[in-house]
Amino acid sequence: MADATVQGHIHPDESEALTGFRSATLESDGTPFTLWFREFDGRPLDPHLADVYVLGSLLHWMGRGGAVHVHGAVSRTLLSNLDEWQAALHSWLPDVYATVTFTVDEVVEGEPPSSRGRAIEPAAPRRR
User: Fold this and answer.
1) Is 120 inside a domain boundary?
2) Has residue 128 been placed in a domain?
3) Rounded-to-integer distance, Cα 124 and Cα 61, Å
4) Which of 6, 11, 55, 119 has its CA 20 to 30 A from that of 37?
């Protein structure tokens, strides 16, 4: 995306999705770093949705403000609920969190997969 107003990017990498590890490269201020998750209960999350990365990095982006582009698919339900959640966080801690505008490559209709009874946890970086 060549939009000069975008200050951050989320690049999902599903190359290890079958191993239970998921990662995305986050870029802000020209510095990339990797966010890792491990599927805790062994049931895989939908590898086509980047929802987990948006949620996992939301506070990071809100600490910076601006706009973030997700290079992947995000559920419409998550995108619509993010506005309300960000407004609440910003109202509670306005000196810490700013609202963020998310743009995505693809918006997926319908409800996101249920997370009831499922868990993920942050994971240490994988050695390749």
Assistant:
1) no
2) no
3) 21
4) 6
> Which residue matches tokens 């910076």?
64
Asked if residue 123 is part of any domain, the answer here is no
What is the spatial distance between Cα 117 and Cα 128, in angstroms, rounded to a whole number? 30
Total domains in the fold of the chain: 1
Strand partners, 70: 10, 104
Q: What is the pLDDT of residues 101-121, one digit of tens each?
A: 999 999 998 655 555 454 444
User: Is residue 77 classed as helix, strand or coil in its secondary structure?
Assistant: helix
Q: Report CA-CA distances (Å) from 19 to 22, 23, 40.
A: 8, 11, 11
Neighbours of 108 (CB within 10 A): 20
Better-predicted residue by pLDDT, 87 or 5? 87
> What is the gyration radius of the CA atoms in the chain, in angstroms?
15
Contact 41, 75 (CB under 8 A): no
